[in-house]
Structures are given as C-alpha cells and as structure tokens.
Amino acid sequence: MVSSMYGDFGSDAGNSRRLCWLHNLKLVPYSVAWELQRSLVTQRRSDCGLNDVLILLEHPPVYTLGTGSSLDFLKFDPSQTEWEVHRIERGGEVTYHCPGQLVGYPILNLLHYRQDLHWYLRQLEEVLIQVLAVYGLKGERVVGYTGVWLEGRKVAAIGIKVSRWITMHGFALNVCPDLEGFKSIVPCGISDKPVGSLAEFIPGIEFEQVRHQVASAFSEVFGVELIEGEL
C-alpha cells in the first residue's frame, strides 16, 4: 500500500531541510500515474504531516489536454483515433508524452513553501534551467508563457493543478524523445515556437544522467532532502 510508506519519516527537528520522497519509475501508463497522483494528494489532504513526493518517470505515447484546453489544437479527431487521449485537471493546453521524455510529478504541500502559484511555476522552470546549465545549455523563459526554451525551441512544458495548496501534475523535459508525435497537435497551443529536445543539442545524452540532474536540481531549488523509496 502506498499509504504505508509515507509516515516513516515524520518531522526531524535536527534536519533543516524538508524531507521529500523520490520515486524513480520507468515506463508507466498515463492512467496508472494519474491515479497514483490523485491517491497521494488525497492522503495529504487528510494528513498534512505526510512527506512530500517527487515522481520521475516516462510515459508510453499519450496526449493530454488541460481542463480548458481547446480541441482546435488537435490535428485529429479524438473520438476517432487510436491515440490515447486524456482530458485532465491541470492547466494549460494539449501536450504529448512519450518515451525519452522525463516527466516529473511533484506532490508538494505549498503551505510549507510559499502560497503563490506563480512562484511555484517559476521554481519548476528554475529546476530545469539549472539542469540545462549543467550541460552548458542556456535555458530561457519566454514572457507570457510557462516552460523552458532552448535557442527558440521549447524543450520543457509545465502544467499543474493545486488544490488546498497541494500540487499535482508537473513538468515534462524532452531529453531524447521521438518528436514526431508533436506534429499531430499545436503543442501547448503555441503555433509559432517549435518543440525541441536536449538530444538535438547534445547527441548521445544519457537519459538516466538527466534524471539524476533533475532530482539534484529539484532538491536545491526547493530546499528539500530527497529520500529514495519504492512504490
């Protein structure tokens, strides 16, 4: 049971950093990860003393649309397609997930950080910008949009849901995915800025190394101590 794992590390008066479980998963169907997130959020609504969680994983090919996403940004009929499509409770427009893309789902109680959604979004961007910097790449923000760009290409998308200051959904960093799937949508509703990947700038980049760098940057930006665990 997931719930049995999240009470072992309660408050630690001698630790200045908040504790956060890190779960490194492999290829997980979108619906399975979605249900896991909702279960973790429900637990934290009932017990705000539970530790935060960061889940890092990949998904098989899937399209997701935010709560208010427009179907106009799909280049196919979602009722007559073999593609897996989900409308979910995050903000933002349509995006695409596939292997080679590192997806992060932080389940954080912002009461322990800052009760400010704009601050949280900028922090997630900062995590990814710091990861790119490790590889000598200059990640950038674009005014008016959420995400991270690299030389004009969007390499990371962010979409969140926050309820009673508990977060779910998160970010997707294109490490070395097949970008063909993005051609069937207008990614994030942005038609004039192409999607890119880190592999286009660093051929042969190692996915697992990027996973490690994301976890490290997340720990520093949010000031948490990550504790690896298994679900």
UniProtKB/TrEMBL annotation:
One Pfam family from the record: LplA-B_cat
Signal peptide segment: none
Group of enzyme by EC: transferase
Gene3D superfamilies with a match to the protein in the record: Bira Bifunctional Protein, Domain 2
Family: Belongs to the LipB family.
Record's function text: Catalyzes the transfer of endogenously produced octanoic acid from octanoyl-acyl-carrier-protein onto the lipoyl domains of lipoate-dependent enzymes. Lipoyl-ACP can also act as a substrate although octanoyl-ACP is likely to be the physiological substrate.
Name of the protein in its database record: Octanoyltransferase
Gene name per UniProt: lipB
